[in-house]
Design brief:
heterodimer, A: alpha+beta, 14 helices, 21 strands, B: alpha/beta, 8-stranded mixed sheet, about 25% helix, globular
Chain lengths: ~475, ~230
C-alpha cells in the first residue's frame, strides 16, 4: 500500500490549527521564490502551485507566505511512518511525501482490506493529513498509482500492468528533460513508453527509468530499507501563536497523541507518563506532566487526562508550538478477550477513575488507608498510594475512634476539667500511651473516652504535665 | 395497547401509597434488622441518593453505615469516601471488619471539585458505595448528583447538616439522626412508600456503655522526664 500526501508541505505546519480558524487569511508555502502549495482560500483567489511569489502577492495581497521547512517535513513523515508501523512491521519511507506499507500479512488481523483502509484513512485524518491511498502487488506500482492520484486497490499483476499503462508519463518520471523529450516524440502514457524499443529508451533516458519500470511491474525485485519505529516519542507541532485557549491546545495535542498511540502500538508498549510542553514566544515554556496509574496507550485515556490537567492550567500567552514527549516505554501486550463477563474491564474502569481524579485534584488527593503496628495513634495508619495493597498490621488496642482529628485540638479547661461546648464527662480510661522516645516523636499521654453534653463521644487525652486535647470522635 | 394496573404497578417507579416500593437496583442490607424492615428493598438503596442528616458529629452517624460497608468490602466491592470532614481512622475501620484494600479516600478541597469528583465516581460505575460529605448543596447540584447516581448501581450516602432537612431534595431516602441515651434514633423523613411513623431505634456499637466513668485524675504539675533524643 502506498500513501501519498499531496498537500504534505501545507499540512505539516498547519495541521495543529482548528480548521475554522485558518479560514481568515489565505496562505501558502513557498520553496524559494515559487509557490509550492496553497490553501483553498488562496486557491480561490487564483494562486496556484508553481507561480512566482510576486505573482501570488499580486493576486492575493493578504497572502501569508511561509518558507518550506524540509527538516520539519522529514520529521513529520517519519512520524507518520512510525504511526503506520502499528499496522505492519514493513514500512518504508518514500521521501519527501510518501510512505509505503506491506499490508498483505495484516489483512486477516484487520478483517480485510476495506476495514484496514478505513482505519488508516481515519488515523491520517485525525493526525491532520490528507492522503491518496493506493494498493498494488508491487511497492513501486502502488506508489505510482498514489502519485497519479488513482485511489485503486489492485491485487492482480496483469491488472496492475494494464492500469499502469494508462497512467501519464509525468506520474512516472519526474525528470523535467525526460518528460520534455517524451512529449516531443508523442509519448503520453506509460503504456506507450513501454511499447517503445527497450534499448533505445535505455540509451536515451537512462537505465534507471527502465529499472524502475520493471520494478513497478514486478519483473525485478525492489528491495527497500525498512523503517524502525523509535523507542521514545517526541513530536512538535507549530501553532504560530494563534492558540490562546486550552481547547485549541487540546485539538493540536490530539494530532500528536494519535501518533503516540500508533508508535506505542507498533512497539507493543504503553507509557506511565507523558509531558506536553507549551512553547511561548515571549514567556518560558510551560510543561504539563500527565501521569497514568497503569501503562496505557489509548488515545481516549490520554485525552481525558490531558483535558483535566489543562483545565487547571492558565495559559500565559499565545502558544507558539506544542511538543509531546514520552520515554520509558513499558511492554503492554494485547489482552485476550474474555468469553464471559469482563473482569479485567472493571479493574480498568477503576484505574481510569483514579487517574481522572488524580489528574484534577492532584496525586495526593486520592489515597488508600493502611494499618501499621504502632502504639502512637497518629502513626498507626498510613496513606497508601492508589492501587497499593494495605500492609498487614496487627492491631490489638483499646477502643479507637472512627474519626481522627489531626493534629489534636487543644481543649479549654475549667477547674482542671476539659470543656468542649460544655463540661465533658469521662466514661472510660485512662489508656496510657507512652512511646516513641527513639524517633523524636515521643508521646506520653493518657487517653479517655468522654461524653460531651450533646451525647457525642470524644476521644481525648491529657499530656503528661497537663493539657487536654481532642484526638478523635466515635462517630 | 392495553395496560393493566398490575403491569403499571410492576414498574419500579410506581408503587402503592401504603406499601414500600421495590427499588430497581438491589439494596445493601444495613446490618440492622429494625432499619431494614423500614427501608424499601430491605436495605440501603443502590442507584439513588441517600441523605443522612446527622445532628452532630460523634453521635454514631458512621456506625449506621459501617455494617453495610464491611459486607461490601469483604465481598470485594469498592468504597470511596469523598471529602470526609476528618481523617477516617484506619485501625478503627479495620476493627469494624472493613477490608481496607477496597477503600479509597478522595480529598477535594473545593465544593466544585467535590461535586465533580462525586459525579465522576458515580458515572464510572466501578465503585459500589460512595460516602460524601458536603457542607451545603443547592437543589440543582443535588439533582445532578441524583441523575449521576441513577446511572450507577452504587449506594450513595450524602452526609449533610440537619438544617438540610427543611430544604427540598431529590434524594429517595432521607434519614435524620438523633442520639437517645446511647442509642441512635433514625427518623426516616422520606422514603419510597408510606410515611414512617416512629423513629427507628438502632442499637449501634459504642465504646463504653457504663454511664458515669472514672473521676477526673488529679493534674500532676510535674514536668515529663526529659530524655535525650538519639536523632
Amino acid at each position: 500500500m502506498a500513501l501519498h500526501f499531496p498537500l504534505f508541505a501545507l499540512e505539516t505546519p498547519s495541521r495543529g490549527r482548528v480548521p475554522r480558524e485558518s479560514v481568515g487569511v489565505p496562505w501558502a508555502i513557498a520553496d524559494g521564490r515559487e509557490v509550492l502549495a496553497c490553501d483553498a482560500h488562496a486557491h480561490a483567489l487564483g494562486v496556484r502551485p508553481g507561480i512566482g511569489l510576486t505573482a501570488a502577492w499580486a493576486l492575493a495581497p493578504r497572502l501569508d507566505v511561509r518558507q518550506r521547512d524540509e527538516a520539519a517535513e522529514r520529521a513529520a513523515l517519519e512520524g507518520v511512518a512510525a504511526w503506520a508501523c502499528r499496522f505492519t512491521p514493513y514500512v518504508s519511507l518514500e521521501p519527501p511525501q510518501g510512505v509505503l506499507m506491506e499490508i498483505e500479512g495484516s489483512l486477516r488481523l484487520y478483517h480485510g482490506l476495506g476495514a484496514l483502509t478505513g482505519l488508516i484513512r481515519g488515523g491520517l485524518e485525525e493526525m491532520g493529513y490528507s492522503a491518496t491511498l493506493a494498493v498494488a502487488p508491487t511497492a513501486r506500482g502502488a506508489w505510482w498509482l498514489a502519485l497519479a492520484g488513482c485511489e485503486q486497490s489492485i491485487n492482480d499483476p496483469a491488472m496492475l500492468e494494464a492500469t499502469l499503462a494508462a497512467l501519464p508519463v509525468s506520474a512516472v518520471c519526474l525528470d523535467q528533460d525526460a518528460r520534455g523529450f517524451l512529449r516531443s516524440v508523442g509519448v503520453a502514457t506509460v503504456g506507450e513508453l513501454l511499447a517503445l524499443p527497450r534499448e533505445g529508451v535505455g540509451r536515451r533516458l537512462g537505465r534507471a527509468l527502465l529499472e524502475s519500470l520493471e520494478r513497478a511491474s514486478g519483473k525485478m525485485p525492489d528491495p527497500r530499507a525498512m523503517f524502525v519505529p523509535p523507542t521514545r516519542f517526541s513530536a512538535k507541532l507549530e501553532l504560530h501563536g494563534e492558540v490562546e485557549h486550552a481547547e485549541g491546545v487540546l485539538f493540536a495535542a490530539r494530532r500528536l497523541l494519535v501518533q503516540l498511540e500508533g508508535v506505542l502500538a507498533a512497539r507493543q508498549a504503553g507509557v506511565r507518563r507523558f509531558r506536553l510542553i507549551l512553547l511561548h514566544r515571549a514567556a518560558p515554556a510551560h510543561v504539563v506532566e500527565v501521569g497514568l496509574a497503569s501503562p496505557g496507550r489509548a488515545i481516549d485515556r490520554f485525552m481525558q487526562l490531558l483535558r483535566e490537567k489543562l483545565s487547571t492550567v492558565a495559559l500565559s500567552g499565545p502558544v507558539e508550538a506544542i511538543r509531546i514527549e514520552a520515554a520509558a516505554f513499558e511492554p503492554l501486550h494485547g489482552r485476550t478477550a474474555g468469553l464471559f463477563r469482563d473482569v479485567h474491564g472493571e479493574g480498568e474502569d477503576w484505574v481510569r477513575l483514579i487517574e481522572r481524579l488524580q489528574a484534577r485534584l492532584g496525586s495526593e488527593a486520592v489515597h488508600g488507608l493502611g494499618v501499621l503496628a504502632e502504639h502512637r495513634p497518629e502513626r498507626a495508619w498510613r496513606a497508601l498510594d492508589a492501587g497499593e495493597r494495605p500492609p498487614r498490621g496487627e492491631v490489638r488496642a483499646g477502643a479507637r475512634p472512627l474519626w481522627l482529628i489531626e493534629p489534636p485540638r487543644r481543649l479549654k479547661e475549667a477547674d482542671g476539667v476539659p470543656h468542649d461546648d460544655g463540661r465533658l464527662e469521662l466514661l472510660a480510661g485512662p489508656e496510657r500511651i507512652e512511646s516513641g522516645w527513639w524517633d523524636c516523636g515521643e508521646v506520653a499521654r493518657d487517653y479517655f473516652i468522654a461524653r460531651a453534653p450533646s451525647n457525642a463521644l470524644l476521644w481525648i487525652f491529657r499530656e503528661r504535665g497537663g493539657g487536654w486535647y481532642l484526638h478523635g470522635l466515635f462517630a | 395497547m392495553k395496560t393493566s394496573l398490575v403491569d403499571i404497578l410492576a414498574q419500579h417507579s410506581v408503587w402503592r401509597g401504603g406499601v414500600l416500593a421495590r427499588p430497581a437496583a438491589p439494596a445493601v442490607p444495613t446490618g440492622f434488622a429494625a432499619l431494614d424492615r423500614e427501608l424499601p428493598g430491605g436495605g440501603w438503596p443502590g442507584g439513588t441518593l441517600t441523605e443522612i442528616l446527622g445532628l452532630r458529629e460523634g453521635v454514631g452517624e458512621l456506625q449506621l453505615v459501617l455494617p453495610a460497608l464491611a459486607a461490601l468490602s469483604t465481598a470485594g466491592r469498592r468504597i470511596v469516601w469523598l471529602a470526609p470532614p476528618h481523617l477516617p481512622y484506619a485501625p478503627a475501620l479495620a476493627a469494624e471488619g472493613i477490608d481496607l484494600g477496597q477503600l479509597s479516600v478522595v480529598r477535594a478541597p473545593g465544593r466544585r471539585d467535590a461535586l465533580w469528583a462525586a459525579e465522576q465516581v458515580l458515572r464510572a460505575g466501578s465503585c459500589d458505595a460512595l460516602l460524601a460529605w458536603f457542607r451545603d448543596l443547592r437543589y440543582a447540584e443535588l439533582r445532578r448528583l441524583a441523575v449521576a447516581a441513577e446511572a450507577s448501581r452504587a449506594f450513595c450516602a450524602l452526609f449533610r447538616s440537619p438544617q438540610a432537612a427543611h430544604e427540598p431534595s431529590p434524594a429517595c431516602l432521607r434519614i435524620a439522626l438523633e442520639s437517645l441515651d446511647g442509642r441512635l434514633a433514625a427518623h426516616i423523613l422520606k422514603r419510597r412508600g408510606a410515611l414512617a411513623a416512629a423513629p427507628v431505634l438502632i442499637p449501634i456499637k459504642r465504646p463504653v456503655h457504663a454511664v458515669g466513668g472514672p473521676a477526673f485524675p488529679a493534674v500532676r504539675t510535674r514536668n515529663p522526664v526529659a530524655r535525650p533524643c538519639p536523632a
